[in-house]
Prior knowledge:
It comes from Paenibacillus illinoisensis. By secondary structure, the chain is mainly alpha-helical. It is 72% helix and 0% strand. The chain has helices spanning 21-45, 50-53, 61-83, 94-99, 104-142, 150-170, 174-196. The chain is globular, with a radius of gyration of 18 Å. The relative contact order is 0.16.
Amino acid sequence: MKKSKFSKFKIQKAKPQQLTERLLLINLYFTQGLTLIIGVVWILLQKRNLFDVLAWPESVHFIWWGLGLAGIMLVMDLVLSYVIPQESMDDGGINDMLFRSRPIWHIVCIAAIVAICEELLFRGAIQHAIGPYWTSILFAVIHIRYLRHWIPTGWVFVSSYGLGWIYLQSGTLWAPILCHFIIDLVSGLAIRFRRGS
Length: 197
């Protein structure tokens, strides 16, 4: 019997040094697609209407929640980057590889895709089931590349809790989506232009 081509296919753990930009992008889009599917299925299993969860709010107050928290978090991130040694904030070079030579339009797309997919799963589905505290612990654990250092892990937890809090305060998923988008966009552009200069 002839062996199929799929028998040669193996999933292996890659070290950051082994990743290429192309492989990193494939991994990013694959994991975000998986995140989106899990989020949608989880919401449907909760017997909730996906269109209600993603409904555009009547009031624009959610913009202030998203912009306000994003501003606070970006200032805190800037302060941490000056106070904390760079090796303590290291993610293995993943963000640098992802954004350093990416066109601006692609950084915008990545930030939007990540914000929508992750917030739909974590705030829209998981937080509805287990609350913001445990959701934030899970969110920090999922960002595994930061787990080698306690400061970025703690910062991811605090950021996630803040996203959960503005979701509860604003009553709409679009507040944490906007906040998450702005943080990823500004961070990606900072890496892009810092490396380009």
